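Run log, item B.
One chain of 427 residues. Sequence copied directly from the ordering sheet:
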Amino acid sequence: MKKNFWKLLGIGRIQDTKFAMIMKKLLLAFLFPVMSFAQGINFEDATFPQLLAKAKTENKIIFIHAYTLWNSSSKYMKDKVFPDANVGAYFNSNFINARFNMEEGEGIMLVKDYNITDYPTILFIDGNGKLVLKTLGFQSQGELIALGKSVAKPIDFSALDNMDLGSFSFVYTEEELSKRIEEFDSGNRDPKFLYKLTEYALNRNHKNAKMYARAFYKVEKNLLTYDNATLMLQTMDSPESEEFTFLQRNEAEVSKIHNHIDVTNKLDKVVSEFALIGIDENESITNRVNKIESTIAKYRPNKAIELSSFYGLAYAEQEKDFKLYEKYALIYFEITYKNSRHNLLNKVAWGFYENITNEASLEKALKWALQSVDVSSNSYNNDTVAHLYYKLGDTNNARIYAEIAIKLGKENGADTSITEALLAKLN
């Protein structure tokens, strides 16, 4: 929740008003970067039900940034768009703002409830949980403010026909969408019209949105543009779809005009979800993994071992089969550890510390944990490195990383008791 900044620093308790003002000015001078960031959007630290309750009380719309840690556009908006003073001024005044990671906690529920298929997704929701607007893709500072204003003020749709929309999507009324659908049913197959119809339908979660998109793909002469690739990434839902076939066949070219990680991750996600259909959870882990690998190999052969071993790792962890956990982790990270998320590297490395005894495997886990530290050093992954060094008998390095972990933990208010217990053994 939003906190009183000056009370947080202790100045709110100072009775001498003149002295307090002097201290505030001094702190502003030293903390200018912090205060500049604070001018951006203030995101609530609240659960989704709490946001709904607040929206009803304050009669405001909820703005939600639906993101994932791996999506580069989500990260860019967090780092470059949301801290903008103009964006902050508008959104803090008009909306209740929140961000949710769609791969954990309440984000998993939001994915299902609001049919979120790509990232970043922007949601505007009223106090009853009803979707007011949903749009996909990166939004610049100006686009985001215009998007917010479109929620509060009706759009003049006649003015949109000659606009180059790019990645920007407006809120569209059911009446306007109905008019476009009538044109489609009457045989209008102009590419520009179909592109806009698809955007309208996607923003209204219309059941035929993908049908309109595929009609557009058939008549559009140049699909290798940023906007068209973005649309394909949004509507692609199966490895048997024409979007998947086109994007995979042209993956290298698409990655030149679109973010490579986003393209690869979406292709991987679609084929993985398809491979999971019909998997019997009562079968052995090995049989399940083999079936997943076989399906993925049919559509995305260069990723079959990587993706299937990831599911093997997840199954083995869930069922506490640490022999298979070790096997699939070694396969998966042999391929991916340089590009894996730091929290996943740390999580599995800690799993090896707790459950694996093979020295060669522990050396691999140490490599993953050190990679995690290289990507984003924090108290947790430094603690994992310290424990792995300790288990491997390297007490000097164990001590070094334990001390780093404790220092970082104290700075960030994390619980360091486990690391302190380790350090006590080493001293």
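Observations after the first pass:
- Residues 1-38, 154-172 have pLDDT under 50 and may be disordered.
- DSSP finds 23 helices and four strands in the chain.
Flagged for discussion on Thursday.
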